[in-house]
Amino acid sequence: MIVLSGKNEWSFADGILRKNPLLFSGMLAAPAAVFCNTVYHALSYAAVFSAVTIITLFAAKFVPRRLAYALRIILYTVLAAAVYIPIYMLLDGILPVKLSSFGVFSLLIVSGSFIVSASELRFFRLSTGKAFLDIISHVLGFDIAVIILGGFRELLSTGGLFGNLYGISVTLPRLSSPFAGFILIGLFAAAVRVITRKTTAKD
Amino acid sequence: MLLGNIASLMLTAFTAAFTENMVFSHGIGTNTILAAAKSQKNFWGICLGVLYMSTVGSVAAWAMARVTDIGNIYPAYVPLCYVLTISIVYVLTLVLAMVILRERFSTMKKYIHISAFNAAVMGTMYLSVSECTTLSDFLFFGIGSGVGFCMAALMLFAVYERLFSKETPAAFRGVPAVLIYFGIIAMAFYGIAGYSPSYL
């Protein structure tokens, strides 16, 4: 049983369900809707996003708050872009999708709203240990949502999973398009909201 | 000849605003649009900020592409090149705004902060490098993208209160309704463009 927090309490499950960055605030909706339309795409993007975000946000926790806001923002994004380099070298070739195919979405990993808003508005308020767990919870929340959505879209749009076709005759190829991605994320977010509300009410 | 050039530049701007609309064709910038549509007070500040940053950022991307030969460098370094470029634009803009706006700087600087490091501007810079060749192309692509962002923000602003109101079912209220709304508008833009982006 996942324990959900009350309004002002902290819980590890919050980042996965109630405050999921993709489903709760629409963060990183672009890569989720446009790029992550298969399991392999979603897995690869989630792996790079997780590695870069966790390392950057943890390092960002030690950026002095007395620095000017503009300098802090520059520092966060330059830090993320610098972390992206070894992560790219390490994971390219291991992951099922070539990382150069991320295109414009590689920029959203390092300069998207997640890193900046998370380090400025949320994580610095928590103790180091709790902040680290909170970062993992939010990153995991995005990863789980994007992989489930990617699998669902791949299955319905191609009739297969992990690039293997299962001979399903009726497919919906347009589910892999960006507009279908947005609509599915919206529906998925509503479903998760209903489930978490029912769970909280029962508890 | 001159008329042909003007028509070509207008087409570049039109393409960036409509068929290559950053929000509806690429899904980029949804979070900034949400921030803009949230309050009437900040709406035009954020929209004009993004329009300015898209335009200047696109021109800066032209310079960066020439200095770094971005098309041929190892892909791992690409995000760093863009981040450093926008950082320079950001700092120069802040200095310029401080000199020009003086007393009003403290109220206006938040729009510069929001506009600089966001997906819409980074996306514009990235796409301008892959789609434009001349400086004027870059300039008009940046303007077109900024206008496209403002148009998308206006579309959300028009229905924002309704999507967040108590009349909307609780499960869909807010972000889920916004995403479905974006999806439906994106479907219309997809119909106009009549193509799938190359990365699909």
Describe the structure.
The complex is a heterodimer of chains A (203) and B (200). Chain A is mainly α and 203 residues long. Chain A has one domain. Helix content of chain A is 65%, strand content 2%. In chain A, α2 (29-35) crosses α8 (178-202). Chain A starts with 20 loop residues before the first helix and ends with a helix. The mean pLDDT of chain A is 83. Chain B is an all-alpha fold and 200 residues long. Helix content of chain B is 76%, strand content 0%. Chain B has helices at 2-17, 30-38, 40-68, 78-101, 105-116, 119-131, 135-163, 175-193. In chain B, α2 runs antiparallel to α3 (40-68). The model of chain B has no long low-confidence stretch (mean pLDDT 84). Chains A and B meet through α1, α2, α4, α5 and α8 of A and α2, α4, α6 and α8 of B.
Keywords:
A: mainly alpha; B: 200 residues; mainly alpha; globular
Number of domains of chain A: 1
Query: What about the largest sheet of chain A?
Result: 2 strands, antiparallel
The poorly predicted ranges of chain A are: none
Percentage of residues in strands of chain A = under 5%
Distance between the termini of chain B: 36 Å
Q: What oligomeric state best describes the polypeptide chains here?
A: heterodimer
Poorly predicted segments of chain B: none
- H/E element order of chain B: HHHHHHHH
What does the largest sheet of chain B look like? none
What's the total helix number of chain A?
8
Summing up helix and strand content along with how strands pair, one would put the structural category of chain B as: mainly alpha
Radius of gyration of chain A: 18 Å
